[in-house]
Amino acid sequence: MRTLLAVRIHSFLERRFPERRVFLKSDTDTRFIRLRSETQLVAVAGITLFTAWSIVATAIVLMDSIGSGNFRELAKRDQQTYRERLNAISAERDARAEEALAAQERFNAALTQISIMQSELLASETRRRELETGIEVIQSTLRDTMTERDQARRELAALKQETSSENTAPAVIASAATQMELMAAALDDTAAERDQIRADAETALDERDALELELQLMDERNDQIFRQLEEAVAVSVTPLDKMFRSAGMPTDRILEQVRRGYNGQGGPLEPLAMSTRGEQPTPEERRANSILAKLDQLNLYRLAAEQAPFATPVNLSQVRQSSGFGYRRDPKTGGRRLHKGADFAGRTGTDILATADGVVTHAGWQSGYGKMVTIRHAFGIETRYAHNSKLRVKVGQRVSRGDHIADMGNTGRSTGTHLHYEVRVNGQPVNPMIYIKAARNVF
C-alpha cells in the first residue's frame, strides 16, 4: 500500500516537475547533475518560503518605521510642550519668589511706618490729654477769677454807695477803678489762652482722626498683600506636594531630611522676631510668619525635587519607549521574567542624562547590564543606566540633573540599541514611570 502511494506521488511529481539534468563540461570531461522531482519540489518550496518571508519582513519593517516616525513626531511635540510648560513654571516660580521678597520688604516698611505712626498717635493722645487737663485747670481758674470779679464788682458797688453817701475821697474811687481794669485785662488774657488751648486740642483731635484713617487704609493694603502672598504660596506648594505623594514619597520625612542637611535658611525666609517680654504676637506677625513658613517649605520642596529622579534619562524626541516595568516574556529565553526598569530605544550614541543630583557609585561593566552607570541619590534612591556604548563619568564623581553621563549602546544582555533605566528605593526596584509621570504636571 505504501509502495503504491509512493509510486503515485512520484508519478504526480514527474508530471509537474520532470527530471532534469544539468551538464558541467570541462576541457577533458563532461559531467551532469540529475535533479529529481523531489529535489525540484524542495527547491521551489524553499524559494517560495524565502520570498514570502522577505515580503512579510519588509512589510513589518516598513510599518515599524512608519509607526516610529509618527511616535517621534508625537514625542517631539510633547517634548516641546513639556519644555514650554517647564519654562513657564520656572518663570512663574521666580516671579512669585520676587513678589514674595518685594512684599516682605513692603511689609517691613509698612510695619516701620505703622510703628512711627503709632508713636505719633500716642504722642498726640498724650498731648490731647495734657491740653484737656490744661483746659480744665484754666476753666477752673477762670471760674475762680470770674467769681472774684463778681465779688469785686459787688464790693465796688457797695463802695460807691458808701462814697456817695459819705463823700469819700476821689483817690479811693480811682484806686478801685484801676484794680478793676487790671482784673479785666487778666480775664481777657485768660480767655485768650483758653481759646488757644481749645483750638490746639481740636487740632490734635483732627490729627488723631487722620492718623487712625491712615492706619486703617494701611491695614487694608497689608491685608490685600497678605492674601495675594498666601494664594501665591498655596499655588506653588500644592503641585509639588502632589508630585511627591504621587511618587509614594512621605513628604513630612522628606522635608525633615532636607531641612537637617540644608544650612541655607535665613535672610528673606527668617521668621519675624517676637517680643521677649511675654507679649503676644500681633495677627500681622502671625500671618507673616505663616507665609514665611510656607516659603521655607516651598524652598525645601525645590531642594528635594532636585535630589529625586523627577526627570527623563533621555530626550524623548530622540527615542521611543520600547518596554515598561513589570513581568514580560524574556527576549532571550522566552520565559516569563520581571523587567525591573523601563527601556528606551534609540540610535547608538544618544545622550544619556542623570535624572537627579547624586554621586556615581558604579561606572563599568556588569554582567547582564553591560556598560552601566549607577548613581546614589538622597532618600535611599538609586538609579541605573545600562547597555551603554560609552561611559562619561567615574566612580565618586558628583553629578547634577541633566548631566551627560553615558552614550546609548547595545552592550551586555541586549537584543538592540536601547537604554535600560532602573529606579531602586532602599534596594528594591520600582517603576521609573511613577517619578516621570508625577513630574509632568509640575516641571
Characteristic key phrases:
single chain, 443 residues, alpha+beta, Glucose Permease (Domain IIA), 3 domains, ten-stranded antiparallel beta sheet, two-stranded antiparallel sheet, 6 helices, 60% helix, 17% strand
Report on the structure:
With 443 residues, the chain is α+β, with helices and mostly antiparallel strands. The protein has three domains: 2-63, no CATH class; 97-307; 310-438, Glucose Permease (Domain IIA). The protein contains six helices and 14 strands. The strands form three sheets. Strands 3, 6, 7, 8, 9, 10, 11, 12, 13 and 14 form a ten-stranded antiparallel sheet that branches. The protein has a two-stranded antiparallel ribbon with strand order 1-2. A two-stranded antiparallel ribbon has the order 4-5. The two termini are 80 Å apart. 16% of the residues are buried.
Stretches where pLDDT falls below 50 for ≥5 residues?
264-276
Whole-angstrom Rg: 49 Å
The amount of helix comes to 55-70%
Shape: rod-shaped
In total, the number of domains comes to: 3
Percent in strands: 15-25%
Based on DSSP secondary structure assignment, what is the total number of beta strands?
A: 14
Which class do the helix and strand fractions yield?
alpha+beta
The H-and-E topology, N to C, reads as HEEHHHHEEEEEEEEEEEEH
Mean pLDDT: 76
Largest sheet: 10 strands, antiparallel
| Count, helices | 6
* End-to-end separation: 80 Å
